[in-house]
Design goal:
By secondary structure, the chain is an alpha+beta fold. The protein has a domain of 126 residues: Fimbrial-type adhesion domain (Immunoglobulin-like, Sandwich). The strands form two sheets. It has a five-stranded antiparallel beta sheet with strand order 1-2-6-5-4, with no helix packed on it. The radius of gyration is 47 Å and the shape is elongated. The N and C termini lie far apart (118 Å).
């Protein structure tokens, strides 16, 4: 009986070996097949489908302008000698930046102390020093807020800021007391 048990155990061990060998061969075949598929041998090729559509893109550019100034400081006015018969001239600057291609006009108000259409600086009490603002260096075209008084530069060549000189003049022969005179003028860009 021991012999029969030994033979059965031997056959069982032999069967496990054959099963392991068959299993190893199967794994090897499957492994080779997978490798061939990844290498492109015998792999099934699939074609992807595509579709297209157009996407509309838009934006609106608006006209816009900014304005700033650099002060016009006349300096010292001498009513007795230097400016008894000679005007006191000075310059300031209006700086405007607008959207490329836009047209604009630039106006200068009469100031805080005007009397009618006469611009005046004040010393803070009841004393006034009259002056005028012009568009040109010859001081022939008065710069104000309407009609020919508006500065009308050419259309903006780019969005870069442009400087426009304000030509000022304090008329000679004004009889005013000593003091510090000033005024505030509103600069406006219309676009």
């Amino acid at each position: 009986m021991d012999r029969q048990i030994n033979e059965l155990c031997s056959k069982a061990a032999q069967g496990r070996k054959e099963t392991n060998v068959k299993l190893s061969k199967t794994v090897a075949v499957v492994g080779v097949g997978a490798a061939m598929a990844f290498a492109g041998f015998g792999a099934v090729q699939t074609n992807a489908a595509t579709a297209t559509a157009n996407l509309g893109v838009s934006a609106t550019v608006t006209n816009n302008c900014t304005i700033s100034t650099a002060a016009l400081a006349f300096g010292s006015y001498d009513p007795v000698v230097a400016n008894a018969s000679t005007n006191l001239d000075g310059t300031g600057t209006v700086i405007v930046a607008c959207t490329k291609g836009s047209t604009a006009t630039i106006g200068l108000g009469l100031g805080s102390n005007a009397s009618g259409s006469t611009r005046r600086m004040t010393d803070g009490s009841s004393n006034y020093l009259t002056y005028e603002l012009y568009q040109d260096s010859g001081r022939s075209t008065i710069w104000n807020t309407a009609g020919a008084g508006l500065l009308s530069p050419v259309a903006a060549p780019s969005k870069a800021a442009r400087n426009f000189t304000v030509y000022g003049r304090v008329a000679s022969n004004q009889d005013v007391p000593a003091g510090s005179y000033n005024d505030t003028v509103v600069a406006t860009v219309n676009f």
